[in-house]
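Form P-L/3: holo structure prediction, ligand glycine.
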Amino acid sequence: MAMEQLWVNEAWEKVHEKVTRTSSRIGARFPHASVDGAYVLEAPHWWTAGFWPGLLWLLYRDSESKDERYKDIAEACEQQLDEVLFGYDRLDHDIGFIWSLTSVARYKLLGEEQSRRRALLAASVLSGRFNVKGNYIRAWNPWGEGDRNEGWAIIDCMMNLPLLYWASETTGDPRFKHLAMEHADTVLAHFIRTDGSVNHIVVFDPQTGDFEGVNGGQGFAPNSAWSRGASWAIYGMALSYRYTGEIRYLEAAKRVAHFFVANLPEDSVPHWDFRLPSGVERYRDTSAGACAACGLLEIARAVPDEESGLYQAAGERILRTMYEHYGAWDNSPEEGLILHGTSHYPERRNIDVPLIYGDYFFVEGLARLRGNAETFW
Ligand code: GLY
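OUTPUT (holo model):
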């Protein structure tokens, strides 16, 4: 390993050290944001349920001495999700985030048939959210009495598409992939702007499929540039290219990546929105940085050698800065691995705290830098 890569192994060891400790307290439960140094646990139906077991699977997969405890916890998490899978009302498009990192992960690693069946059931429910008039996957269910969001699609769903691509690959039935590509094409048409920034929420008429408008969602405003949304687009489009070989998805991933990298502050860790008016707090969002880094490394594998260095270097730089300046290492009582994530600024929820998806993508990025580019997505 080249000298400059030593930090990667050092970081991997520090992740292990911390997760050995935190896994004893967290066990087979579902952390989301770390507040005052301890991860707050969510109900299993929350969209973040897959990240903790997914992180444990990564450590289990890529460590020489297999820690069976990680496997046991990840499997126990997956088992608890059956109640969610059969509790139809709570299922929304985040099915992909949840079952890719649990059941698909376990199936890919251990060939467990029950996990394959769970993931296929999840893929079928996700397919059922497809609106054939607007060619989009419906994002959420109503949040409250009288809410109408049948026509809403969101950029985050790009990371849910791999569950459908995987379902087609594993069954040989192209239907799942067809739907995923229709949705990805809708994202090309309505979410990704000419300058490479992205919309968070796009609203369609659910009866006719007509485009109706754009909502700001978790970004500052409809025309701002929510950085985690951009990271979902970069990595999601790059994975769509990996599964389909369609160059338009790789080109879209590159376009958003160029916007993302060009708008990074000096230390390469993004603010939560790239287009903030003065006077609005410019908190960082390390989760956006970590996810984008995985996307950049995925693009680096996909493009010809002469282009690859740009994306590889940008992904590495983000991860290395996070390790060196944003990590909570050396026996810090903090349970999170990476500090300074921002979950939902407009609703003032979980600002400037470690987030489990930031931790997950940081570890996935390290795994890539250690030479394993296989993903659970
Ligand atoms: N998928 C929800 C979020 O990015 O916060």
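COMMENT: The pocket of glycine is lined by residues 47, 156, 218, 228, 343 (CB under 6 Å).
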